[in-house]
Amino acid sequence: MGRKKNTPTDRQFTLAHVRQREHISPSFVRLTLGGLEDLVPRGHDHWCRLFFAREGQDALQLPTRTSEIGWYLQYLATPKVRRPWVRAYTVREVRPDVGEVDIDFVIHQDDAGGLGPAAKFALAANPGDRVGFLDQGIAFSPDHPHDWTLLVGDETALPALAGISAELPQTARGIAIIEVPTAGDRQEFQVPPAMDVRWIHRDEAAGDTGRPGQLALAALKETAPLDGAVHAHLIGESGLATGARRHLVQEWGVPKSHVDFVGYWRHGRPATT
Question: Domains of the chain (ranges plus CATH)?
Answer without folding.
Answer: 14-137 (2.40.30.10), 148-265 (3.40.50.80)
